[in-house]
Each structure stands twice: as C-alpha cells, then as structure tokens.
Amino acid sequence: MHLILASKSPRREELLRRAGFTFETRSSHIDEIRQAGEPAEEFTCRIARDKAQAVAAFAQPGDLVLGADTVVTVDRQILGKPAGPDDAARMLRHLAGRTHRVITGVCLVLVPDRVEALKPEVTLVTVVPLDEQEIQDYVKSGEPMDKAGAYAIQGLASKFVARIEGSYSNVVGLPIHLVYEILKPFLDDRP
Questions:
Q1: Residue-by-residue DSSP string for 112-133
Q2: Contacts of 148 (CB under 8 A, 6+ apart)
Q3: Which of 92, 127, 171, 176, by CA, is between 20 and 30 Å from 186?
Q4: In the 8-state DSSP scheme, what is residue 103?
C-alpha cells in the first residue's frame, strides 16, 4: 500500500506518523470555499474529497490518497482559519465559555478515481470563559493563526479547554481512529 496524505499540515503528518503509518505528503492547492447553505459536515467532506481527488490526479494507479478538512462550528457558524489577529480574537471571544463542534471530513481515494470512504467526525469541545487579556495574549503568541477556530488544543490553548466529548485527534486535525477504520481493509492481509 502506498499512502499519500493530501495535506501539508504538520499536525496531520505528526498524528499519522505517531499512529505508525508510512506515507508521503502532497499539497492539493484547492479552493476551500463553502457553498451557500452547505452544512458543515457536507462542506468538510466535499473539501476532503476535492483535496484527495486533486492529488490522486497525479498519483499512480493503486495508490491511496487521504484527504481531510477540519472546521469549528458554533451557532451554525463555521469558523475556519482566522484571516488575521483581529479575526482570531473575534473567534476566541465567540468560543469562550461555550461548547462548540469540531468537524473533520475524511476521504480516501483509490487511484485513479474510486472513492473508498467519505465520512465526517464530530467532537464537542467546551472552552472555559476567557477574559480579554487572555484572548489578546494568546493571539500575540501567533498560535491561533493557521488553526480552524483560532486555537490549538495540543498547544498553549490546552489550558482553555475544560472538556471534550469524542476524538481528541480530531480536534488536532485528523481523527486517527476513523483513518485506521477506513485504511484497515487495505492493511489486512488475511483472506
């Protein structure tokens, strides 16, 4: 099995490596634009599929391409990566003292074009109340800038997370148990 991760996310790479997967990474360079009225689960799955298929177009027959996309939702609003420090602070104010959903769409494509799996994973995350100084200090750290929802649960923001319900690795950016589930048929040599 030759596995390709359709991502340049260091967090996704680290999660896959720690779980024992051997793979290479290739960036997909697709537009991640939500369609009007598109539910978050459908959006993340569509983007994950688009990423996987874009990379699959340049892969060898028989290769497996794994695509993923993660968003944060609260009050039916999707919070992607912040556009800048002010946007990051706005997102953190919106999440403070509340529970939100982290959704990752995962897609596995068997090259040339067979979609083997397309599934979303949802985790609930509760953030403690934050004052303005905590928000500004965190934004100044730079950590929120390339993270969906403007925080990294595995980093400095870990002190802001009161509870999670579901997959921790999903909140980091890739639900490893789901990846293993969809890859398992390709790893299993038994008849």
A1: TTEEEEEEEEEEEEEEPP--HH
A2: 70, 71, 72, 79, 80, 81, 102, 173
A3: 171
A4: E
Q: Which fold has domain 3-187?
A: Maf protein (3.90.950)
Give one DSSP letter per residue of 63-96, joined into a string. Answer: -EEEEEEEEEEETTEEE-S-SSHHHHHHHHHHHT
> CA–CA separation, 31 vs 125, rounded Å?
27
Q: How far apart are CA 39 and CA 166, in angstroms?
A: 20
Query: 21-61 pLDDT, tens per residue?
Result: 999 999 998 988 888 889 999 999 999 999 999 999 999 99
Q: Is 69 a catalytic residue?
A: yes
Of 50, 56, 61, residue with least CA distance to 106: 50
What is the biggest distance separating any 2 CA atoms in the chain, rounded to whole angstroms? 59
| Catalytic position from the list 50, 63, 69, 188 | 69
Contact 67, 51 (CB under 8 A): yes
The number of residues in the chain equals 191
Residue ranges per structural domain of the chain: 3-187
The pTM for the full model equals 0.92
Sign of the C-alpha dihedral, residues 97, 99, 162, 14?
negative
